[in-house]
Amino acid sequence: MNKYERLFTPLDLGFTQLKNRILMGSMHTGLEELGDWQRVANFYGRRAEGGVGLMVTGGIAPNQEGAVLPGASAMSTETDIKNHKIVTDRVRSLDSKILMQILHAGRYAYSDKAVAPSPIRSPISPFIPEELDEGGIQKQISDIVGAANKAKIAGYHGVEIMGSEGYLLNQFIVRHTNKRQDDWGGTYEKRIKFPIQVVKRVRDSVGPDFIIMYRLSMIDLIPEGSSWHEVVTLAKEIEKAGANIINTGIGWHESRIPTIATSVPRKAFTWVTKKLMGQIKIPIITSNRINTPEIAEGILRDGAADMVSMARPFLADPDFVNKAFSDNSDTIIPCIACNQACLDHTFSMKLTSCLVNPSACHEDEFQIKVTKNPKHIAVIGSGPAGLSAAISASQRGHTVDLFEAKDSIGGQLNLASRIPGKEEFLALVTYYKKRLDTLNIRTRLNQNASFDLLVDFDEIIIATGVLPRMPDIKGISSKKVVLYTDILNEKVSAGEKVLIIGAGGIGFDVAQFLTSDRSSSTLNIGKWMKEWGVADPEISRGGVSQDGPQIDHPKRSITMLQRKFDKMGKTLGKTTGWIHRKVLKSKNVRMLSGVNYEEITSDGLIVSFGEMRKDIQLIEADTIVICSGQVPDVKLITELKEIGKPTHIIGGAHDSWELDAKRAINQGTKLGISI
User: The domain that contains 78 carries what CATH number?
Assistant: First the structure.
């Protein structure tokens, strides 16, 4: 018997059956907008091959005004039907089921055609939406119904109606965005009329044998959001209107509370879904920060949901389900919820990928073909670049030796995992260890590569990473001065007053590390909720605590400094940077830009400001941490060139600008499959 018994118990919907309790939730990948529908089919087909029981497409607009962006994918024409049929034919041939998500952006539409229940501009769009009149409301409902009908013709097993995350249906539901006083606003009963009518009319149109899944916002995480009584009321009405499944939505896009970033605890919001269990008869799906089959199985055993939604884990590993089913869950490539290649790409108008799996959405580019000319390859350095190269080269059929000067693999990933909120990085290192073992890659720890050791290899890959860059500051040799690596490895302990020189990703990480009491809230849901001001919506409307965030007093006084005049944290991730800035602000971290470093003294650091070097002052410090960038670790390169063997330089050794695991893994993987 499989240890994930509940996870692999079929779910009977009456007219159809889902083969397991795993949903691949909707993701905006950008694939549908490319116009290459075979590529879209390859993406969903690969996940169907991997065992997913039910999957949902990215958001598909029912009309022009409902599109998230001009030119976003829609389901409104005969051509759309033909294109989508390419996808559904592929999925149906692989014993899986797929729903099309109907998403009407409402005021979130980045367009002057945006419409909404009230003319209130969203904080994430510059456009003031047009207030819908009665005719406009009826048109939007009709267009959603039309999209559902076209989805049925295109071969979808059903639709997911997007009613959460602050999109149009959600906008009608709450007073925050619905200021109307007609039949579509005012009382709660009138405000929920729009989503109820949408579901009812879709059901009446598509008939009984078509899945309707409704994405319901169970905790809005905004002021004036829904109360718990209202959430339950809506769920019951949506069930009456004809939905087969309720899926969980968490938070609005404009909420200032993170919901899926790596610093959010695993299964952080499952307790919300559990509150709805037993209130309705149709199945309920839980979501957000569920990334292992063990967690998913535990949720189902706890009675917190009937089904579990995971999205980004299927970018990380399309074989997630099959690996779990065959009791090989320790070989699943873990989603670390970093957002760097998925959501950051989406909001930067780039095609989605995945930091830990660059082949995601690029399946045709990363095909591993067994070589007809096996070689003996040396990989020097076991950071993300070296590990990726070693693994993909081994998959090609090459014999690989991996040299690592330290006593463990992982490189900078190990440092990252020490940062509160980045514990997921440790799971990636654990995965790599398992992968090296299963591929029989010879890992030579505590061994510096040398001429004698490398002379017999056919090719050499240098992935030695980076070394901290020491800036040219008078007094830099002071005992007060330490490197970020020594702080994170806890070789030295910082004093009470700390200056951090450098405000890139490393500087922010060090500040987070030094203001923490080592009791990471990411590992404690209750503590995390308190820190971010998340409350039970049964007690506090919208799930926003009336007391606000409650932050423990930081153990140190931290000042961050940078030479540039730019906003601190400008280079941080597009969807996570605001989180890091908000956390440090809450811990009273002082941030100074446009700083000149004049001299380090026994009392601290003398600085000035601007090109004119004005306002010279002493900033007292017990410890000064250097986070001012890196330089490539190239000690071996000159020596190895003398061997005369084909040599490749990747990762930080090739380009030391910031620490970029996404780039390193991409480089390593591409090199490995090309050798």
Answer: 3.20.20.70
Half-sphere exposure of 36 (CA within 13 A, CB side): 10
Please report, for residues 348, 358, 360, the alpha-carbon distance to residue 351 in angstroms, rounded to integers and kept in the order given: 9, 11, 10
Residues 6+ apart with CB under 8 A from 415: 485, 488, 489
Task: Note whether residue 395 is domain-resident.
Answer: yes
Predicted confidence band of residue 657 (pLDDT cuts 50, 70, 90)? low
| Share of the chain residues as helix, strand and coil, in percent rounded to the nearest 5 | 35, 20, 50
Which segments within 237-291 are labelled E, that is strand? 245-250, 284-286
pLDDT value, residue 645: 82
Alpha helices in 265-335 (DSSP H): 270-276, 293-301, 313-316, 320-325
By annotation, the residues acting in catalysis are: 167
Residue 253's pLDDT band, with cuts at 50, 70 and 90, is very high
As given in the structure block, the two tokens for residue 83 are 């294109």
Same domain, residue pair 292 and 198: yes
Which helix H or strand E contains 43, and what residues bound it?
A: helix 37-49
**What percent of the chain shows pLDDT beyond 90?**
90
Average pLDDT rounded to a whole number, residues 432-439: 97
How deeply is 130 buried, as exposed, middle or buried, from its count of CB atoms within 10 A (0-12, 13-18, 19+)?
middle
599 has which bridge partners?
A: 606
Q: Which of 321, 343, 365 is the last residue of a domain?
A: 365
301-305, 309-313, 612-616: lowest mean pLDDT where? Answer: 612-616
Q: Is the Cα torsion angle 543, 545, 548, 554 positive or negative in sign?
A: negative
pLDDT of residue 658: 59
Q: Which residues contact 65 (CB under 8 A, 6 or more apart)?
A: 109, 111, 113, 114, 115, 140
Average pLDDT, the chain: 95
- Rounded CA gap, 609 and 562, in Å? 10
- Tell me: the pLDDT tens digits for 83-140? 999 999 999 999 999 999 999 999 999 999 999 999 999 998 999 999 999 999 999 9
Q: Within this chain, do residues 110 and 237 fall inside the same structural domain, yes or no?
A: yes
Residues 69 and 183 in one domain: yes
Closest CA to 95 of 149, 29, 16, 197: 16
Domain count for the chain? 3
Task: Report the SS3 class of residue 342.
Answer: coil
Q: Final residue of a domain: which of 594, 613, 628? A: 628
257 is a domain residue: yes
Phi and psi based region of residue 635 (left: phi greater than 0; alpha: psi -120 to 50; beta: remaining) = alpha
Give the pairing of strands 17-18 and 11-12: antiparallel
The total number of residues written for the chain in this structure: 675
Residues 314 and 170: their CA atoms lie apart, in Å, by 27
Expressed as residue numbers, the domain containing 589 is: 470-517+552-628
Q: Characterize the bridge pairing of strands 459-462 and 376-380.
A: parallel
Coil, helix or strand at residue 243: coil
117: which DSSP letter? S
Is 528 among the domain residues? no
Q: How far apart are CA 566 and CA 665, in angstroms?
A: 29
In a domain, 188, yes or no: yes
Residue 137 CA to residue 123 CA, distance in Å, equals: 23
Query: Tokens 């996808």 sit at which residue?
Result: 87
CA atoms 258, 264, 266, 270: torsion sign: negative
